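For the sake of clarity, the format in which proteins appear in this thesis is described at this point. The fold follows as a row of integers, each naming the local backbone shape at the matching residue. One such record is shown here in full, so that the layout can be seen directly:
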Amino acid sequence: MLKIDSHQHFWQFDSIRDSWITTEMNVIAKDFMPQDLKPLLDEFNFDGCVIVQSDDSLIENTFQLANAKQNNFVKGVVGWVDFNASDLEEQLQEFKKEPLLKGIRHTSLQGNSDRAAFLKPEFKYGMFLLEKYNYAYDLLILEDQLKYVNEFISEIPYLKVVIDHLAKPKIKSGDITDWKIEIDKVASHQNVYCKISGMVTEADWFKAKYEDFEPYLDVAFNAFGVDRLMFGSDWPVCNLAGGYEKMLSVVTTYTSKLSETEQEKFWGGNAQQFYNL
């Protein structure tokens, strides 16, 4: 069975650039590079991974593409472009020379004071160009932004979009009702996928039990089905809440009830298809 970790990060820690890493997150305030991830992928029998950007800059693209080219277990990169750039289309044309660049993401979207920033005309135009050049889009948002996604997706029905981290539901408090309503709406669009990733850091980092995650997994699997879900560790961020093994344990336990064919899709096939790996 092909196994792909569809969501992980590499970085050389910079306290200014990476100011989102607060004091309580010191465990990830250091470098995390391919040689640190490879033993984990080997231990848990993964065939490869997808690097996802964690800094909104063109320098990040250069850095992550170099990591991918130097490590054949990296199957693709989700990078960044500025949708406000006057030469946006030219940049995307140039990036087509980099076959390992598979998609685009904007880290800053989840923290934007304009919670519906992705409804702006320049953002929609960026989506149009991503579709034109056959890139996917990773949508990194928080739960309160989900209510704008239905309108957003309605205008880009052919672009492949994946919701990162289930839009970060409030697992720690157990709130689920509003998130479920909006997830169900978003999942009605067949071009939208969802990553089962980032869950452990939305729960109590030290006390969370499998039962805390199960209701959210039920919602995701009922809404998207096994054809539009994929696993992502969100390593090394998952180290805040038990690490790779904890995240993998939760998801492995839940998916053990799936058929062999369904598991093949979830653990690798869907990521391979979505990102054209």
